[in-house]
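For reproducibility, we list the full input for the zinc ion complex.
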Amino acid sequence: MEPVQALQKYFGYSAFRHEQGAIINHVLNKKDVLALMPTGGGKSLCYQLPAVMLEGLTIVISPLIALMKDQVDSLNVNGIPAAFFNSSQNPEEQVQLTTKLRNNQIKLLYLAPERLFGNESKMMGFLKTLPVSLIAIDEAHCISHWGHDFRPEYLALAGLKLEFPNIPVIALTATADKLTKKDILEKLNLKDPAVFISSFNRENITYRVVPKRKSFNQLLAFLDERKEESGIIYCLSRKSTESLAADLTAEGFAAAAYHAGLDNALKAKTQEAFLRDDVKIIVATIAFGMGINKSNVRYVVHMDMPKNIEGYYQETGRAGRDGLPSEAMLLYSPGDAIKLKQFAMIADNPEQSQVMLNKLNDMVRYCQLQACRRQFLLKYFEEDSPPNCGSCDYCLTEFKKFDGTLIAQKALSAVARLKERFGYTYVIDFLRGSKNEKIREEHKALKTYGIGADISKTDWLRYIRELTGMGYLYVSDDAYPVLKLTPKSDAVLKGLEKVMLIESQTVEEHQHAEATL
Ligand code: ADP
Ligand code: ZN
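The corresponding predicted structure, in tokenized form, follows.
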């Protein structure tokens, strides 16, 4: 049977999405694969379809029990025999499952990594007696220190290729920057792997970042036009999910809270109710969403700033899986960043803390961005896109612009004179000729010192961010953010390129309008 026929027969779909077809062909040809696909892109099918087509058993490594259960249930509903080993099973159930596996009655076996290599576990020995044809590693970024969700248990997966040298491995993730990608390939010891990267662009999602003022009123204004629609509202703390859900209920919304501290029965009930549309709004911590497959989520709101772009993108990606227009709104307050900084510091691990802090800084940059949000997000995932997407708050606003070439030249030459070694505050103080003691004597002697005294600090900050957004400057990821020139800077400095900047007045009007919604 051809893969497309099997797709139709077992899953009822008529065509492959993204790179699914190519990925599946590689897997069927027993090649190792790394597949990067956005949330909702259809990763599961990339190993589930080969699993039903190949003889023997597919082992799926997955980090979360809840996620496994959903997947196993939905496979069984489709008539595909799948199962998982779980610590809540009693010995009898485990024996039953073992027998089924021996009799070749299971096509997919889901396992948490710690089960596979656990000290007392005889699992590996047992699995090696079975006709394993494929190993799938879901959420593969968990193996990397550079990822946002490092899980030490995943490191043991390095041993898989030794135990099963001839079995193809497919690793899948929705989030991988360059370092994480490299790390996954190395740590898993993949053999001559084919790497598939699908576009991360979610065209039907509109991205907005709004300055957080009176957040509950802002939320009510947003919901006012979306009363009949389903949405997810993310909060940072468990407590605030509960109080916000209560407040929304009092306003007449069908809202429920969800977080990891609730008991399992209640969590399952809430999820069910959301899937059935009895509950329209889930107010949740990031514990909600993994494995949730509701296609008509129309909006995702972040009441607090997320810790990193990866998480944010994954969470917003839960909107609009059906392809219809959907909204992602984030309420941003600089105070959130300060709070999150404390979380990012992991006491005994300075290296890991630095990774988290850098990711947090990227998140702050996104919130403060004066440029197309989609382009920023896609660039984060190393994808090129046009500078104007037409569907983020920045691209949807008509800003009045003026010829800011001279301002740009001043900013860029200040950065150049300061030898690309300072951050925003210093560069701006220098431009404004601040009498501040911080500005070193040697710098006060430079020609550009004080050439921007006519422009306020706030405006300078905005212009520099805008120049950064346009790619004339960039902010390095050193211990603290440092402004640097880019290959595009030169043409501006030489007067070969005109730079249009946004009139500050229109920015204020825009922010005011968004904040009062
Ligand atoms: P991911 O794991 O990448 O977040 P899933 O594997 O959960 O995404 O797939 C997202 C949704 O898309 C699921 O409802 C799945 O059934 C559906 N889907 C996957 N592949 C196809 C396809 N080729 N055609 C139609 N729907 C698909
Ligand atoms: Zn845009």
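The chain is about 40% helix and 15% strand. Residues 372-374, 388-389, 392, 394-395 surround zinc ion (ligand 2) (CB under 6 Å). Both points were considered when choosing residues for closer inspection.
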